[in-house]
Amino acid sequence: MALHRLFQLSSLLRSAVTVTLRRNIGISAVVFNRAKDLDPVQKLFLDKIRDYNTKSKATGGIVDGGAAYQKNLSEEMTKLQRLYGGGDLTKFPDFKFPDPKLEEVAK
Fold first, then answer.
1. Strand blocks (E) in the chain
2. pLDDT, tens digit (0-9, with 9 covering 90-100), for 83-100
């Protein structure tokens, strides 16, 4: 009986140790990868995203849009205003849902 209980305890202990080791190895792998330099493709990708972000903030909108882009944008905005009745199409609409008036029914 005692030997059986010892085997059960050892299997529980073994499974707990296994789970703990898997978690620790997984976490240390992530930390180790962050400590290394990025591979060249990832570095190039991140550099381009950062470069686009600084250019976008400097221009306040689309980078390298040009006159043709602005013309196309204004034409499309005019079409949408004509189709949907005008208004400011650059902001989210303000919805108002009034509460329905409920009347009591006499029993």
1. none
2. 887 778 778 878 899 999
Q: Is the pLDDT of residue 34 over 70?
A: no
Q: Which helix or strand (DSSP H or E) is residue 75 part of?
A: helix 66-84
pLDDT in tens, 72-81: 989 998 998 8
**How many angstroms separate the most distant Cα atoms in the chain?**
87
Please name which of 76, 60, 56 lies closest in space to residue 68, comparing C-alpha atoms.
76
How far is the C-alpha of 18 from the C-alpha of 10, rounded, in Å? 12
Q: Which helix (H) or strand (E) holds 81?
A: helix 66-84
CA distances in angstroms from 84 to 12, 15, 77, listed in the order given: 67, 64, 10
Residues 62, 70: contact at Cβ < 8 Å? no
